[in-house]
Amino acid sequence: MNVTITGENGYISNEIALWLKSKDLEMNIKLISVRSELNISNETDVLIHTAALVHNNENHFQESDYFNINTDLTIRLAQKAKNKGVKHFIFFSTMAVYGLEQGQINSESPLQPKTFYGKSKLAAEQALQAMQDEDFVVSIVRPPMIYGPNCPGNYSLLRKLARKTPIFPNVYNQRSMLFIDNLCEFINQLVINKNSGVFHPQDGTYICTSQMVLEIAKQNKHFILLSKIGGVMLMRTSLKFSLINKIFGSLTYSKDISQYNDNTYQRITFIDAIRITEQGWRKC
Q1: Rounded to whole angstroms, how far apart are CA atoms 236 and 242?
Q2: Can you state the angle between helices 209-219 and 270-280, rounded to 10 degrees?
């Protein structure tokens, strides 16, 4: 099988490439950049599109930039793939298409994106679904926050705090998250099964931010005290700061919309995921 993955320098794309290759030594994996030429060969069976302009950059880009890259470029890529005979197109979308910062997302939740990122991803989803036919299968994946060794994003921030601070707010919240190995196994199964539809993979358990920080500290042999008073004070101000909501608020997918293939993709438990992440992190 020939698999092409966009985002040649991306964290997710490279992890998926390594995982797929480890599962099938005969699988031919090619990483490409979409910045210049949309280089898709006639032999490509599956195209996994991970490249995107992400939400972290919204202060530096205009709405048109997001739609040019996340929507228009995706449509051109998919059309070229379809014309080249690609049978399966896997598109990485986002939880942001729901527009929620707190709450639980289920099968009845409306699609009401609030950010340029979420809006541009939803527009791409809709265009791709219109292109699907019996010879061109479209899979849309809306992962929550992804974490793993050397991952970018909020986990890196929490890790820095967990390794240095002596005290951390004790807040009980629940977040849907997805360990990189579990994501890669989900994609592996999706490639094998060639399923169409919209998918919401997540880890088997919801994650509490304070407990995650505590576990990171333990893995680094650092003692940290969880403060109930600090947690109360933090939550009193949380509504005023979006970043605090993103880290300490509760935002989950309902378990039923994440069901896939008996959930065999959820291979790694929370404790093991933190252990693997910390042991695999580059030494600085």
Answers
A1: 13
A2: 50
- 2-142 CATH: 3.40.50.720
Closest Cα partner for 204 from 142, 156, 252, 276? 252
Helix (H, G, I), strand (E, B) or coil at 273: helix
Residues 152 and 186: beta-carbon distance below 8 Å = no
Q: Where are the alpha helices (DSSP H) in the chain?
A: 11-23, 63-66, 73-83, 116-131, 154-164, 180-193, 209-219, 228-237, 242-248, 270-280
Tens-digit pLDDT profile for residues 103-115? 999 999 999 999 9
Q: What are phi and psi of 197, to 5 degrees?
A: 125, -170
Task: Tell me the two tokens of residue 71.
Answer: 């929507």
- Assign 14 to helix, strand or coil: helix
Per-domain residue ranges of the chain: 2-142, 149-177+205-284
Instruction: Please tell me the pTM assigned to this model.
Output: 0.94
**What does the block give as tokens for 29?**
């994996």
